[in-house]
Structure formats: structure tokens, C-alpha cells
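Fold it.
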Amino acid sequence: YSVLINLNDDKLIKILPLEKSSNVFVIKGRHAGQIGRIEEIMIRGGKKIAKISAKEARMNVWIKNLIVTE
């Protein structure tokens, strides 16, 4: 999950779930800086991996390296 917080009021605005069809931003790793949409979430070698389609390419990214965007 990612959350939107209003820092002026210290209030939670919205919770953004990490699920299929979510828009995401890659924050770490070889694909850092890429923006895309989750096609599928799978488990490989005990890690949750998201299959992401972006304008440039398709990639597999560890979900810990993702932030959900609107």
C-alpha cells in the first residue's frame, strides 16, 4: 500500500492499494525512475514480484521497490 497524507492537517487522505492495474513508480533497482501499470503479481523464490508494463518496456520488479501512484 501507499498512502496520501495532508501534511498541513496531518490527516490521511487516501490509501492506494498495490494490486493488478495499479499505476506504480519504481524507486529502486535497475528500473528506477520508470512509471508503469501492474499486469500481474507473482511469487518467485519467496519474493513478490510485479510484472509491469511501461511505455519503454515490460519489466519484473520486486514489490518493495514500488510506490503506488494515482
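Strands lie at 2-6, 11-16, 23-26, 35-44, 47-54, 58-62, 66-69.
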